[in-house]
Structure formats: C-alpha cells, structure tokens
Amino acid sequence: MPETSAGRLLTLPPTMPQHTPAGVVGNTPMLWIGEPFCAPRQGFWAKLEGHNPGGIKDRTAIYMVARATERGQLAPGAPIVESTSGTLGLGLALAGITFGHPVALVTDPGMEPLMARLLAAYGAVVHTVTEPHPTGGWQQARRDRVAELLAADPAAYCPDQYNNPDNVAAYAPLAHELIAQVGRIDTLVVAVGTGGHSAGVSRALRTFCPHLRVVGVDTIGSTIFGQPARPRIMRGLGSSIHPRNVDYGTFDEVHWVDPVQAVRTSRVLASSHYASGGWSVGAVATVARWLSRTRPATERIVAIFPDGPQRYFDTVFNDDFCAEKGLLDRPPLDVPDEIADTRERTVTRWTRCTRVVDPRALAPDAGAGAGSADVVGEARR
Ligand SMILES: Cc1ncc(COP(=O)(O)O)c(C=O)c1O
C-alpha cells in the first residue's frame, strides 16, 4: 500500500473496489470562487467535500473502521457506536454498509430532523439524548450515552473521533488530491471541530509546501481556541471540550465566526456559485474571501468546504428559522475584529487572532475548562 513520507496511508484499503459505495469516496472536485462573490482579480479554490456520498467525514469513517478491524479492535459484525452531530454519522452508516456492522449514533435535539431521517434511511439507529449534562452540556450527555451503549455490549466499538489519531491520518489522501489539483498552496483555510481534517491535511501538505499558512475557523462560543463556552447555534465546527486531535501548532491564525456571518455568506455563495454548504462552509468562505482581499494577489488560497447545503435547508436557508434566531437583523461585517490574545475578551462576532495557543496550557482563569456547557440554542449577545 503506498505511503507518504510521514508513513501515512495514501489510498483506501486495496480491498475496496472503486465501483462500491465506499469506492466513490474522495477525488472530490475543486471550484474557483471568484467574481461576483470575491472582488475582480481576487478569489480562492474551494475543495468540494460535499461531493462525497455523505461529506468529508466519509473519508475518516471508512479509514477508522478499516484500521480498527486490522488491529482487531472491531470484530466482524460487531456494532459501531459513536457520538455525532451528523456528518460522521453519514460516514459511519456508509462504513457499516460497506463492512457489515450495525451502527448506533448518539445525538442531541439540535440535530436537524432531515439528518436524523437520512441516517435512519441509511440503516443507522439514532439515539437522541433529551437532557444536557448539568455541567458538560449536550456533548457530555452524548458521551455518557455512548458509554452506556458500550457497557451494554462488550463487542461494541467506538471510533472516538475526538481523540483517535486515525481521524487525522485519514486525511493524507485529501492533501495529495489538493496538490494534484492546484499544485502549490500558500494558505489553507479549514474549519475545526474534532481537529481531524485540519491536522491531517496540513501535516501532509507541509511535506509539499513547507511555507504553508494554516488559518483555522471556529465558531463563537466554542472552547477549542481558549474562549469560554457559550451557547452555539452553528453545528459541525466548534466544540465545548478540548479534542486531543486539534494540532494547535499547525495554525498561524484563528477566526471565530458568528452565525449572522455564516448564514449570509452561505446564501451569497449559493446564489452566485451554486456551491454552498451550511455553518462551516459559510464560516470558511467568509474567512477565505477576506484573505483573498488582504493577502498578496500572487498567494494561492485553498478552502475546504466540508459538506454541501442539503441538510441546512431548515436552518441556514430557512428565513423563519433565521428570523427567529435574529440572524437577519444586522448586516454581516466586511472585516473581522481583532484580538491579540484569546484571553483578551469573549468574542461575540467575527474576530481574528494571530496568537494561537493550546488552551489546556492556559491559566485556569481563561475560563475554558473541558466539559463546559455545550448548549445548542441562540447565542447570547
Ligand atoms: C460540516 C462540518 N464541518 C466541519 C467539521 C469539522 O471537522 P473536523 O472534525 O475534522 O475538525 C465537521 C465535523 O464534524 C463537520 O461536520
């Protein structure tokens, strides 16, 4: 099996014929996002991971399950159990069909009804927790339910996307696709949730482009980069814990994007380029567009769009939902606010910081303790 210089797998396992459902994962297209979304002679490349059967996480789901099987951690036919807000769930449903495992997914009431129905259609059993954990919020409540399901069946396996290094290694092929598609890359713009694709893609890309700048994109209210936990509307990116897969050293700067910004950007992108997505695509495209305006014109910028727009038609693209959450009340910003250090203040709208630190190394008064509340609801302003 071919490997990168870092010793990571380049291809899907060879037993995976290309004409199978899992065989069509990867080799997603690139789209140039220029005018009218960006100004004349400005723009960036978007990697359209929504062209995978489920989304970007198909790559890691197939990889984590294949590697667990190789290591003997997952027996033939044994159940797979995981906590997910959706995208990994789609990938695990695909892995379950491909490798013959029942799949149980634990989520919370914030999951879009469409996504829950999609997962059920693909054969997964969806468990929805009904109460947040008193201190650890919905994310901890989901993890507790996963622990219960694992305890009830000793054969069951949990990939643990937050801490499993396979969720980083799975993305080396994506980096190789980018190099084959655009050659040199100067700046990579990536959403951060578990940290898997930002860590895996940037690590493999730097073997080709050592000068690469990596710009991480998080949501306001997320603790990943040292902000205190606050209620979050945006799903996919962000977290209320500190996943071990986040590679803090890889980032040159971080942006926290607010939902007003993400909604407006996703909508403009959809109507101008017929390529859009939801919260994370809106956030990533917000930052990539700003970079295309402010970085030298010779710089080649690549943004990863983790999924497509379909699951967001009841939220990001629904006027009633957005009006109820106050997301249409103010115009989006053209430039981010700036802070010198994540501890400077709690950010409530699009903000940038070029000093990226691992919050686990910060003083306790940073207010970013693991397991703080993860409430899906309207952000307090
Ligand atoms: C739509 C979407 N965007 C972004 C992310 C963040 O990706 P990662 O977990 O690799 O950091 C996720 C993760 O689930 C996602 O579902």
From TrEMBL:
The name this protein goes by in its record: Pyridoxal-5'-phosphate-dependent protein subunit beta
Residue ranges of every copy of the Tryptophan synthase beta chain-like PALP domain listed in the record: 24-307
UniProt entry tagged with the keyword ATP-binding: no
Keywords in alphabetical order: Pyridoxal phosphate
Pfam families according to UniProt: PALP
Cofactor(s) the protein needs: pyridoxal 5'-phosphate
InterPro entries registered for this protein in UniProt: Cys_Synth/Cystath_Beta-Synth, TrpB-like_PALP, TrpB-like_PALP_sf
GO biological process, one term: alpha-amino acid metabolic process
